[in-house]
């Protein structure tokens, strides 16, 4: 197998199954971050990840990290934390601020450069990319962003400037997304943080099959409208005698 160099005249991608095993998932190089190319990539389970100033690299790893919204793990300590109602959580209130904050995460390096931020902000303005914001008063203290594909959400990055902010962002989003018909969140590559929250690996071929099925589904109206999102999962009602 070899890395495919993308043509500037076409937004076509090679099959994800042609990706390298080492480094895991590297599929293609080059191209650009125009909306048409980015959307063509996400439709095939491919995403960009590269260092600013270098050629764009496109990936489709095997296995693929995913989270089923109803499998989000809420620890006892997080439940206790939420009782104090420390945050206000919103959807699509400040995408630009969220992606800028994600770019400043020390553990993420500098891969979310200005070119990436401009590209995803354009997708947001077109209605494809979305953000969750966590506020403490008027201060933005956490959040996440990603790209919608029907009933599947392709998570790109999250950040936290205070304890539990990113956990609460993801928890609130899982509940909101599922309540509108969302069924799967793409976490790309499993890490310790997302694994603790309930993400797990599945084979790439299974992910691609799920993607093909879920991207055809339409969410209930109003899912992506700017709104306040409940900060905690709704507990099931107690049984009555």
TrEMBL record:
EC class of the enzyme, as a word: transferase
Family matches, as InterPro entries: Acyl_CoA_acyltransferase, Leu/Phe-tRNA_Trfase, Leu/Phe-tRNA_Trfase_C, Leu/Phe-tRNA_Trfase_N
Catalytic reactions of this protein: N-terminal L-arginyl-[protein] + L-leucyl-tRNA(Leu) = N-terminal L-leucyl-L-arginyl-[protein] + tRNA(Leu) + H(+); L-phenylalanyl-tRNA(Phe) + an N-terminal L-alpha-aminoacyl-[protein] = an N-terminal L-phenylalanyl-L-alpha-aminoacyl-[protein] + tRNA(Phe); N-terminal L-lysyl-[protein] + L-leucyl-tRNA(Leu) = N-terminal L-leucyl-L-lysyl-[protein] + tRNA(Leu) + H(+)
Molecular function as annotated in GO: leucyl-tRNA--protein transferase activity
Superkingdom, taxonomy of origin: Bacteria
Main location: cytoplasm
EC number annotated for this UniProt entry: 2.3.2.6
Subcellular location(s) of the protein: Cytoplasm
Keywords annotated in UniProt: Acyltransferase, Cytoplasm, Transferase
Annotated function: Functions in the N-end rule pathway of protein degradation where it conjugates Leu, Phe and, less efficiently, Met from aminoacyl-tRNAs to the N-termini of proteins containing an N-terminal arginine or lysine.
Family according to the record: Belongs to the L/F-transferase family.
Protein's recorded name: Leucyl/phenylalanyl-tRNA--protein transferase
Organism: Serratia aquatilis
Gene: aat
């Amino acid at each position: 197998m070899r890395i495919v160099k993308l043509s500037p005249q076409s937004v076509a991608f090679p099959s994800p199954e042609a990706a390298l095993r080492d480094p895991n998932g590297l599929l293609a190089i080059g191209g650009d971050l125009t909306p048409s190319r980015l959307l063509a990539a996400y439709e095939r389970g491919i995403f960009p990840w590269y260092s600013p100033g270098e050629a764009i690299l496109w990936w489709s790893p095997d296995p693929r990290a995913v989270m089923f919204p109803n499998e989000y793990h809420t620890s006892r300590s997080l439940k206790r934390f939420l009782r104090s109602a420390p945050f206000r959580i919103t959807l699509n209130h400040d995408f630009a601020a969220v992606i800028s904050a994600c770019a400043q995460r020390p553990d993420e390096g500098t891969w979310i450069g200005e070119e990436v931020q401009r590209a995803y902000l354009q997708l947001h303005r077109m209605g494809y990319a979305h953000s969750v914001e966590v506020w403490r008063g008027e201060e933005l203290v956490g959040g996440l962003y990603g790209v919608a594909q029907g009933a599947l959400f392709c998570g790109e990055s999250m950040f936290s400037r205070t304890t539990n902010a990113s956990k609460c962002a993801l928890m609130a989003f899982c509940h909101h997304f599922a309540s509108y018909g969302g069924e799967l969140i793409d976490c790309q590559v499993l890490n310790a943080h997302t694994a603790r929250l309930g993400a797990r690996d599945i084979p790439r071929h299974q992910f691609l099959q799920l993607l093909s099925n879920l991207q055809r589904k339409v969410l209930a109206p109003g899912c992506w409208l700017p709104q306040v999102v409940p900060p905690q999962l709704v507990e099931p009602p107690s049984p009555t005698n």
